[in-house]
Automatic annotation (TrEMBL), chains A, B:
Name of this chain's protein: Glucokinase
PANTHER family, per the entry: BIFUNCTIONAL UDP-N-ACETYLGLUCOSAMINE 2-EPIMERASE_N-ACETYLMANNOSAMINE KINASE, ROK (REPRESSOR, ORF, KINASE) FAMILY
The entry's keywords: Transferase
One of the Pfam families matching this protein, by short name: ROK
Species, as recorded: Aureibacter tunicatorum
GO molecular function, one term: glucokinase activity
Length: 321, 321
């Protein structure tokens, strides 16, 4: 009988379901729209049906060990989603409690998406034998999951690990959080687009990106393509992004001295274009005792299934305790 | 029979010994000069004799549970002191191994002084029921000890928790570590003296501190006294120190979301003069989810015995595991 865990990744648009075994093989997949529901009870009903449908498609004998959920602003301690700006469910949503009414598994647990990615990396990916590492997710914003002594760092209130909101530039760029100079205003898909705007304003340098701005096609992906093609502004934007990220990571290393830092998500797919200069700037800013000890590695979670793998891994992590 | 632990605090000048019970009562004290010895073997011989002498002075029945040592650059994993700049023992010194040849206790363990202070606070002081907190020691430099999920954060290599070397000002003040802009160049006994020099150069403001510079009596203590007496420059220096510290602590909170941050050592003795503005600047820089949750507290370890209490607490912490 194969042991499996149910992984659910809740995004603003879609909620993706995966039934995953201990090795990270996804036996069945499903999804429902998230943004169709204003009412959390209707959403949970629909989600539960979809999970049951997924389970039915598996023909071999399985033992379901639990449900792991990754969600924006998911709080591991309380099992609630709290004031997630990109979800229609407002206020504090007791998701774990509601799912416990539907399912009787030993583990039903929740955390935020970056933490889920970190645990996924530890259970299935490149961090398998690591006790101390940091996961940085470079999506629309910058998320982070920190593992110390083989345990996720949740902090006193369940909200630890917000490296996207470390202030790296006093009085710097305005951030969605209401403050200025947060790391994610520089190092994220939106951050690198803002850097291009800065550079376009600052110089007269010709660049294919100028046309993309006017045609509305500028994106982190188009900046990457331009950089690969040798566009000077695009290359400068990657270098600047890496400089900010490298400096911030050097400070993070002084905190927890990890074995490695993993990069995950859109910008991380730029591979060496972002990883090599980030490593260089990090090393330049590290205290001597940490130099040449900390790897920067692209996440080894497979792109399409990464989010549900991360979510499902919460179950195995919980059962290890 | 009273259970006791031996605490040894190794400083550049003196090594202080204390025999401490589980409640933090110091039953016997001793010390030997550290800087008299170039040879670690001679030092360990002398230290061992001094410890035995201390034990002999105790008349009641005791059960010795182990030895805990706090030392600059002490590595908990390897039990070695590594390249401590202010000790005469050069290179890597296998202190725990050498002490194990002299004593047969179940626990003989070592860490750096700031980590020892953090564990001391957790065992005997103000952090007794806390699972997540940060200790900042404001001495000649700035040291830190981070506790997460009730465990000391040592990191991959044993050197985690060097918040004194987080870079808070790119291209800022030169630091003894060879880089620029480290937190301890601003927030420490030497840092606040450097701030006074900056202010004396920057303004024409009259200040008692001008005479102290020429007479060579300027110190963090004299700056504190001047601030208490209302000296404008001294007050400005405290405000600037608190601003730098508050900003750095806000970033540290985004990492581990602690319940409290403890301040320890010389500058912390300035009490509200440093704590109140540091708290204010920290709150101003915190992400909303962390606001009004994190206390800044003066260490509750009693001044004179704080270092040996910290060292001895390593033994109880080790036995708890």
């Amino acid at each position: 009988m194969r042991k499996v865990a149910i992984g659910i990744d809740i995004g603003g648009t879609n909620s993706v379901i995966g039934i995953v075994d201990e090795k990270g093989e996804v036996l069945s997949r499903g999804n429902i729209p998230t943004d169709k529901y204003d009412d959390i009870n209707l959403y949970v009903n629909e989600l539960s049906s979809a999970v049951k449908d997924c389970l039915k498609t598996i023909e071999e004998d399985i033992e379901v060990n639990g449900i792991g959920i990754g969600a924006p602003n998911g709080n591991h301690y309380s099992g609630t989603i709290e004031y997630a700006p990109n979800l229609k469910f407002k206020g504090v949503v007791p998701l774990v409690e509601l799912l416990k009414e539907k399912f009787d598994y030993p583990v039903i647990t929740l955390t935020n998406d970056a933490n889920a990615a970190a645990i996924g990396e530890m259970i299935y990916g490149g961090a398998k034998w690591m006790k101390n590492f940091i996961m940085i997710t470079l999506g629309t914003g910058l998320g982070s999951g920190i593992v110390i002594n083989e345990e996720m760092v949740y902090g006193h209130d369940g909200f630890a690990g917000e490296l996207g909101h470390v202030i790296v530039e006093k009085g710097g760029r305005k951030c969605g959080c209401g403050r200025r100079g947060c790391l994610e205003t520089y190092c994220s898909a939106t951050g690198i687009v803002r850097t291009i705007y800065d550079l376009l304003g600052d110089t007269m340098e010709p660049s294919v990106l100028r046309e993309q701005v006017s045609s509305g096609t500028l994106s982190s992906k188009s900046i990457y393509d331009a950089a690969v093609a040798g566009d000077k502004l695009a290359l400068e934007a990657f270098d600047f992004t890496a400089e900010k990220l490298g400096e911030a990571l050097a400070n993070a290393v002084a905190f927890s001295s990890p074995e490695a830092i993993f990069l995950f998500g859109g910008l991380a797919n730029a591979g060496d274009m972002i990883i090599k200069p980030t490593k260089k700037y990090m090393e330049e800013n590290l205290l001597k005792i940490y130099q040449n000890k900390v790897d920067i590695i692209k996440s080894e979670l497979p792109g399409a299934d990464a989010a549900v793998l991360g979510a499902s891994s919460l179950v195995w992590q919980e059962l290890r305790k």
